[in-house]
Write a structure and sequence with these properties.
heterodimer, A: alpha+beta, Aldehyde Oxidoreductase, domain 3, Aldehyde Oxidoreductase, domain 4, seven-stranded mixed β-sheet, about 30% helix, about 25% strand, globular, B: Uridine Diphospho-n-acetylenolpyruvylglucosamine Reductase, domain 2, Uridine Diphospho-n-acetylenolpyruvylglucosamine Reductase, domain 3, Enolase-like, domain 1, 3 domains, five-stranded antiparallel β-sheet, 12 helices, carbon-monoxide oxygenase activity (chain A), Carbon monoxide dehydrogenase large chain (chain A), Ald_Oxase/Xan_DH_a/b_sf (chain A), molybdenum (chain A)
Chain lengths: ~800, ~290
C-alpha cells in the first residue's frame, strides 16, 4: 500500500467514526421511543397530584345565564371547581394570544364555539373529575351563530366578541366591523391593478384551503406544581416553545421568571398544535397555585380536535395576469381568513397573515398585491401553521393551483408554464414583488431532473390515451398528473420580520466539552419527533471532530437550556443549527490556541484535519480534539481561562428558502370517487443535507400529512356550529394502508447566509404536497370541463363532481 | 374519552351470566370483544353501570359443522373466523368479510357474537348473516330460542334480544357447493365503518342465476336484506338490464344517514355500486 492510500484510508476511517454531517446516522432517540421508554407529560406522577377536566359548552354561541357548581363540589373526591368568576379577580379569565388578541380561559358571559371551556373541575382522580363535569349545571341562552366567514361582516351579523366590541382598533390596525379582526395589505395595488386592466389573459379563482387540524398523536397536556414555601412553579407541558411559555406565564401570573421552571419532556408530535397557550395550561397553573398540590390536565382526542388550534380556513381569491405566450405579469390575491372565536393564530411574524406574501411562489412576477381580512366566527380559535411556516402552505396552494388554472386557460402544459416563469439561477438573491429576498435557488435544474426521472412526457401521452378511452366508454378511470413546484420561507427569523410578543426570534446553542472529550450541548429549540438529538450532534461532530455518539443533546428544560424560541416553522436547523455551528466554531478557535501551545507552534502553523489540529507539512505532529479538551481544563496556555465551552445566540440575517418539485400520478374511479395515488415523486432542495435518512423520514411524514389534508382531512361544522367528526373514527388520519408509496430525490443548493448552508426540510413536503395532490385531482377532471374542484378531495366530493358532469349512468 | 364508573362481572357459566343480566336489569350490558361497546362508553354515549364479561364462560367459542348448519360460538373472534379451514371451505365469504373488519389487533378481540348482537348498523357481520340466512341462538333464563338474522334487527342498536337474553351462537345453513360469493366494502380507511357494503351469495346453472341473496351494510338504521333485488335476478343471465333493476331495487330500500363518509344520496349510490361489483365477482366465482 502506498503512503497516500494509507493516508486516505485513515482519513476516511476517522471521518466515518464521527458520524457527522451527511451521514445516515440512526436516530438515537428511537432507542427509547421504539421500546416505549419515552417520557411524556402524561407519564409524570407526582405525590399528591390531582386532576382537572373541563365543562364545555354544547352551544356554538350562547349567553351564559348561570353556572351552578354546587352539585359538582358536593361530589366526594372533588376538590375545586373553577369558573371565570374565580379567575377574574386574578385577571386570568382572559389570556393573551400570540396574535395580539385575547382569548377566554373560562367563558365569562358568553360561549363562542362548541366545546369552549366553561368550568374546570379538579378532583382526586381523572374519572371523578370527568364524572363531576356532568354535575356542573350551566344555563345557556342560545344565540344565532356564524359559521360561514363570508357572513361575518354582514351589517346584521350577530356581534360575537362583545368583550372588544368598542375597541375598533385591533392589534393590527382598524377593524371594519365588530366581527373583523384585521386587514393587511402588501404590494403595489395601483401597479397591479394597471397590469390586470391591460393584460391579454387573466384568471380568477376562489381557492379554499379548508379547515383542518394538526392532530398530533399525543394531545395537549400539562402538569403544574406550585411550591408555596419557595414560591416556585414547575410546569411540565407539551410545549413546542418552552422558554416563551415561561416568559408568558411570568408576565401574566406576576411570578418572577426565575421562579418558574418550564419543562417540555418528550413530545409526541406537534405540527403547530403545541405552539400556543391553552386554557388547560392556565387552569392547571391556577389550580396548583390555589391548592398547593400538583394539578395534571390531559386533553382527550375529541377535545384536541375540537378546541385546540385548528389550521387554515383560508378563502383565497387568486388572480394572475399574463401574456398570451404565458409570461406572468402580475398577481392579485384577496384572502378571507376565518380565525374562529379568538385570533389565536400562532404567528410569530410581525404581520397578521404570517408569510402569506410568499404567494408569488417560485416565479418571477413583476408586480403583486395581497390583501387579507381576518374575521371572527363561532368556531374554535387558532389558525396555526400545520407542518409549515406561517401561512406558507396557504400561499403555495394559492400560486400552485392558480398556475394550473392559468395553464388551462392558455391551453399550455403547466410544467412548461412553470419553466417559462421560474426565477432564474442567476437572479438570486432575488427580490420578490411582495418584499422577500430569496437566498438561493436553482429551479430549472430541479424541475428538469424531476420531469426526466418520472418520464413526464410519457405520462402525458398515457393520459391522453386514457382520456380517449374514457370518452369511448372503455374505462371508468380518470388519470391525473399533479405538479407542484414550491418555494418555502422558513427559519423565523430576522428580528426585523419576526417576534413573539416582542421577543425576537433568535435561537441558541450552548456547547460544553468535558475534560475527556465528550460533550453536552443544549439548545433553545424543542424536538417533537424531528430527531434533534441525532442531527445537532452531527453538526457538532463535523465542526469539532468529536464522534456524534459522544455528544448528548438536551432541550426543553428552561433552567438548563439557553433561551430560544422553540421548534416550528422549520426553524430549528436554520436558526439553532446555525447557532450550533457558530458556538462550535468559537470552541474550535480556542482549541486551536490550546493545540498551538501543546505543539509549541504558532496558531497559524496549524491546520484542521477532521478530528485534530496538525502542523502544516508535518502531519504526524497533531493534537486530537480529545487531547485538547483535557489540556483545556488541566493545562491551558498561560493567561488563558480554563474550560472549553461556548454559547451562541443566533439572529439569522435572512430567512431560508427551501424548494422542491413534486409530481403525483393519480387514478380516480369515477363511479365511487375513490382516488388512488399510483406514484408520488418528491424532489427536495433543502440546501446542505445533515442526515439524509432523517430528511427522508421528514419527507415521508410531511407527504403523508399532505395526503391526508388534501384527500379528506377536515374539521367541518354544521349550520348550528356543531363540530363534525372530531374523533379518529371520523377525522381522516390515514394509516400505512391508505398512504401512498413515496419516492424521494434531491438537489443541493446551499443557503449562502447560513453557516453550514442548511435550509430546513421538515415542512417542505407538506407545503409542496397539498397542492400537488389537489392539482392531480383537478387535472384528472380538467378535460371534462370540471372547473376548479375545492379540497378536501374525499371520495364523496369527487363523486359529486362526476354527478355534476353527468358521468354516472 | 373517560368512561363512567362501572362494576365488572366475570361469570363462568351462561346461566350465571343470564341471572346477572336479569338481576341488574337495564344498567347491565354483556361484554364480548368490546370493540363497539367500549368506544361508546369512552364517549359516554353508553354508560352501563355493570359490564358482564362473557370471556370467562367455557363453550362460547368455536366453529363446527352440525348437520346442515355451520355453528359458530358467539365469542369466536374474527381472527379465528379468518383462520378456520372449515369456513374457508364451506363459507369463504365469512373469511373475506372478516378480513375487511378493522385491523388485525381489533380482530384478535372482536367477536362474531358481539358484532351481530350489538345492533350497530356499521358492523359488517349482520348484513352478511342476513345474506347467509343465519339464525341466532338467544339464551335467557327460560332456555334458548332461535331468531332469524333477517328478523333480528329492529333499529339502530335495537334488536330482538329480550331483557336477560344473550346471543350465544350463530347457525348458518351450509351454502350450496359451487356457490359464488363476494363482500364489497367501500371505506375511507382501515378501521372505518363502511360508507356502504354489499354481501352477495349466488348459485348459477350455466350462465343462468339460480339463486341469489344480498345483504347491505351501513346504509340504513339496520342491516338490509335486499330480498326484492335478489328476486329480480333469479332466472336471469345477470344481463345489464336485470342487474340495473336489481341495483335500483336495492338502492330503493336504503335510508342512510349523512355523515363524514358522505351525504345520503352518495351512500345510497355506493350501495348500488358495491352490489354491482359484488354480483360480478360472485358470478365469476360460481362454479356450478
Amino acid at each position: 500500500m502506498n503512503e497516500q492510500v494509507k493516508i486516505d484510508l485513515d482519513r476516511a476511517e476517522r471521518t466515518e467514526k464521527l458520524q457527522g454531517m451527511g451521514c445516515k446516522r440512526k436516530r438515537v432517540e428511537d432507542i427509547r421511543f421504539t421500546q416505549g421508554k419515552g417520557s411524556y407529560v402524561d407519564d409524570l406522577k407526582l405525590p399528591g397530584m390531582v386532576f382537572g377536566d373541563f365543562v364545555r359548552s354544547p352551544h356554538a354561541h350562547a349567553r351564559i345565564v348561570s353556572i351552578d357548581t354546587s352539585r359538582a363540589k358536593a361530589m366526594p373526591g372533588v376538590i375545586a371547581v373553577l369558573t371565570a368568576a374565580d379567575l377574574k379577580p386574578l385577571g386570568l379569565h382572559y389570556m393573551p394570544t400570540l396574535a395580539g388578541d385575547v382569548q377566554a380561559v373560562l367563558a365569562e358571559e358568553k360561549v363562542l364555539f362548541q366545546n369552549q371551556e366553561v368550568a374546570f373541575v379538579i378532583a382526586e382522580d381523572r374519572y371523578i373529575a370527568s364524572d363531576a363535569t356532568e354535575l356542573v349545571d350551566v344555563e345557556y341562552e342560545a344565540l344565532p351563530c356564524i359559521v360561514d366567514p363570508f357572513k361575518s361582516m354582514l351589517p346584521d351579523a350577530p356581534i360575537l366578541r362583545e368583550d372588544i366590541k368598542d375597541k375598533m382598533t385591533g392589534a393590527h390596525g382598524p377593524r371594519k366591523h365588530p366581527n373583523h379582526i384585521f386587514e393587511w395589505q402588501i404590494g403595489d395595488k395601483q401597479a397591479t391593478d394597471d397590469v390586470f386592466a391591460n393584460a391579454e389573459v387573466t384568471i380568477k379563482e376562489m381557492l379554499l384551503d379548508h379547515r383542518t387540524h394538526p392532530s398530533p398523536l399525543e394531545t395537549c397536556q400539562s402538569v403544574a406544581s406550585f411550591d408555596k414555601v419557595k414560591g416556585e412553579l414547575t410546569l411540565w407541558g407539551t410545549f413546542q416553545a418552552p422558554h416563551v411559555i415561561r416568559t408568558v406565564v411570568s408576565l401574566i401570573s406576576g411570578l418572577p421568571e426565575h421562579k418558574i421552571h418550564v419543562i417540555a419532556p418528550d413530545i409526541g408530535g406537534g405540527f403547530g398544535n403545541k405552539v400556543g397557550a391553552y386554557a388547560g395550561y392556565v387552569c392547571s397553573v391556577v389550580g396548583s397555585i390555589v391548592l398547593g398540590v400538583p394539578v395534571k390536565w390531559v386533553e382527550d382526542r375529541m377535545e384536541n380536535l375540537s378546541t385546540t388550534s385548528f389550521a387554515r380556513d383560508y378563502h383565497m381569491t387568486t388572480e394572475l395576469a399574463a401574456t398570451k405566450e404565458g409570461k406572468i405579469l402580475g398577481m392579485r390575491v384577496h384572502v378571507l381568513a376565518d380565525h374562529g372565536a379568538f385570533d389565536a393564530c400562532a404567528d410569530p411574524s410581525k404581520w397578521p397573515a404570517g408569510f402569506m406574501n410568499i404567494c408569488t411562489g417560485s416565479y418571477d412576477i413583476p408586480v403583486a398585491h395581497l390583501a387579507v381580512d381576518g374575521v371572527y366566527t363561532n368556531k374554535a380559535s387558532g389558525g396555526v401553521a400545520y407542518r409549515c411556516s406561517f401561512r406558507v402552505t396557504e400561499a403555495v396552494f394559492a400560486i400552485e393551483r392558480a398556475i394550473e388554472v392559468l395553464a388551462q386557460k392558455l391551453s399550455m402544459d403547466s410544467a412548461e408554464l412553470r419553466m417559462k416563469n421560474f426565477i432564474k439561477a442567476e437572479q438570486f438573491p432575488y427580490q420578490s414583488a411582495l418584499g422577500w429576498e430569496y437566498d438561493s435557488g436553482n429551479y430549472h435544474v430541479a424541475m428538469q431532473k424531476a420531469m426526466d426521472t418520472i418520464g413526464y412526457k410519457q405520462l402525458r401521452a398515457e393520459q391522453a390515451e386514457k382520456r380517449e378511452a374514457f370518452k369511448r366508454g372503455e374505462t371508468r378511470e380518470l388519470m391525473g398528473i399533479g405538479i407542484s413546484f414550491f418555494t418555502e420561507i422558513v427559519g423565523a427569523g430576522p428580528a426585523k420580520n419576526c417576534d413573539i410578543l416582542g421577543i425576537a426570534m433568535f435561537d441558541s446553542a450552548e456547547i460544553r466539552i468535558h475534560p475527556t472529550g465528550s460533550v453536552i450541548a443544549r439548545m433553545g429549540t424543542k424536538s417533537q419527533g424531528q430527531g434533534h438529538e441525532t442531527t445537532y450532534a452531527q453538526i457538532i461532530a463535523t465542526e469539532l471532530g468529536i464522534p456524534a455518539d459522544d455528544i448528548m443533546i438536551e432541550e426543553g428544560n428552561t433552567d438548563t437550556a439557553p433561551y430560544g424560541l422553540g421548534t416550528y416553522g422549520s426553524r430549528s436547523t436554520p436558526v439553532a443549527g446555525a447557532a450550533t455551528a457558530v458556538a462550535a466554531r468559537k470552541i474550535k478557535a480556542k482549541a486551536q490556541m490550546i493545540a498551538a501551545h501543546m505543539l509549541e507552534v504558532h496558531e497559524g502553523d496549524l491546520e484542521w484535519d477532521i478530528d485534530r489540529f496538525r502542523v502544516k507539512g508535518l502531519p504526524e505532529k497533531f493534537k486530537t480534539m480529545k487531547e485538547i479538551a483535557w489540556s483545556a481544563y488541566n493545562a491551558p496556555p498561560p493567561n488563558m481561562e480554563p474550560g472549553l465551552e461556548a454559547v451562541n445566540y443566533y439572529e439569522p440575517p435572512n430567512m431560508t428558502y427551501p424548494f422542491g418539485a413534486y409530481f403525483c400520478i393519480m387514478d380516480i374511479d369515477v363511479d365511487t370517487g375513490v382516488a388512488k395515488t399510483r406514484r408520488f415523486y418528491a424532489l427536495d432542495d433543502c440546501g446542505t443535507r445533515i442526515n439524509p435518512m432523517i430528511i427522508e423520514g421528514q419527507v415521508h411524514g410531511g407527504l403523508t400529512e399532505a395526503f391526508a389534508c388534501a384527500m379528506g382531512q377536515e374539521i367541518r361544522y354544521d349550520e348550528m356550529g356543531n363540530v363534525m367528526g372530531a374523533s379518529f373514527m371520523d377525522f381522516f388520519l390515514p394509516t400505512a394502508v391508505e398512504t401512498p408509496k413515496w419516492e424521494t430525490d434531491f438537489t443541493v443548493t446551499p443557503s449562502p447566509h447560513h453557516p453550514i448552508g442548511a435550509k430546513g426540510v421538515g415542512e417542505s413536503p407538506h407545503v409542496g404536497g397539498v397542492p400537488c395532490f389537489s392539482n392531480a385531482v383537478n387535472d384528472a377532471y380538467a378535460f371534462l370541463g370540471a372547473g376548479n374542484i375545492q379540497m378536501p378531495h374525499d371520495a364523496w366530493r369527487l363523486w359529486k363532481v362526476g354527478e355534476r358532469l353527468g358521468l354516472h349512468a | 374519552m373517560i368512561p363512567g364508573t362501572f362494576a365488572y362481572h366475570r361469570p363462568t357459566t351462561i346461566g350465571s351470566a343470564v341471572a346477572l343480566l336479569i338481576e341488574l336489569g337495564e344498567d347491565a350490558r354483556p361484554l364480548a370483544g368490546g370493540h363497539s361497546l367500549i368506544p361508546l362508553m369512552k364517549t359516554r354515549l353508553a354508560s352501563p353501570e355493570h359490564l358482564i364479561d362473557l370471556a370467562g364462560i367455557d363453550g362460547l367459542s368455536g366453529i363446527a359443522r352440525s348437520d346442515d348448519d355451520i355453528v359458530i360460538g358467539a365469542m369466536t373472534t374474527q381472527h379465528s373466523l379468518i383462520g378456520s379451514s372449515l369456513l374457508s371451505e364451506l363459507a369463504p365469504i365469512i373469511r373475506e368479510t372478516s378480513l375487511m373488519i378493522a385491523d388485525p389487533q381489533i380482530r384478535y378481540k372482536g367477536t362474531i357474537g358481539g358484532n351481530c348482537a350489538n345492533g350497530d348498523p356499521g358492523n359488517d357481520m349482520p348484513a352478511l348473516m342476513q345474506c347467509l340466512n343465519a339464525r341466532y341462538a338467544l339464551t335467557g333464563n327460560e332456555g334458548s330460542r332461535e331468531v332469524l338474522a333477517r328478523d333480528f334487527y329492529l333499529g339502530a342498536y335495537e334488536t330482538a334480544l329480550a331483557a336477560g337474553e344473550i346471543l350465544t351462537a350463530v347457525r348458518i345453513p351450509v351454502p350450496a357447493a359451487g356457490h359464488g360469493y363476494a363482500y364489497e366494502k367501500l371505506k375511507r380507511k382501515v378501521g372505518d365503518y363502511a360508507t356502504a357494503a354489499a354481501a352477495v351469495m349466488i348459485t348459477m346453472a350455466g350462465d343462468t342465476c339460480m339463486s341469489v341473496s344480498i345483504g347491505l351494510t351501513n346504509v340504513a338504521e339496520t342491516p338490509l336484506w335486499a330480498e326484492e333485488a335478489g328476486r329480480l335476478l333469479v332466472g336471469t343471465k345477470l344481463d345489464e338490464g336485470s342487474v340495473a333493476s336489481a341495483v335500483a331495487a336495492a338502492e330503493a330500500i336504503t335510508d342512510p344517514a349523512s355523515d363524514m363518509r358522505g351525504p345520503a344520496d352518495y351512500r345510497t349510490k355506493m350501495a348500488g355500486v358495491m352490489l354491482r361489483r359484488a354480483l360480478e365477482r360472485a358470478r365469476s366465482r360460481a362454479t356450478a
